[in-house]
Design brief:
72 residues; Non-ribosomal Peptide Synthetase Peptidyl Carrier Protein, Chain A; globular; 3 helices
């Protein structure tokens, strides 16, 4: 799941995927809360799962864990 999310972020932000780790914050990538909502909608469509954030996620790792928990 990390690879899928990192690839998505790299494409959206026009950066190298190697610049993204589990500890990368969305803030450091210049991603705001509106961008996060958009990303979740794209992931919902791609994965066929409903992703409703209960808590704010601030790192790529937190998002990966959240998405994986919804897929189980």
């Amino acid at each position: 799941m990390f690879e899928k999310i990192a690839s998505y972020l790299a494409n959206q932000m026009d950066i190298d995927v190697e610049q993204i780790s589990m500890d990368t914050t969305f803030e450091s990538l210049g991603i705001d809360s509106l961008d996060t909502v958009e990303m979740l909608m794209d992931l919902e469509e791609e994965l066929g799962v409903e992703l409703e954030l209960e808590d704010k996620v601030s790192t790529v790792g937190e998002l990966v864990e959240f998405v994986e928990s919804k897929l189980q």
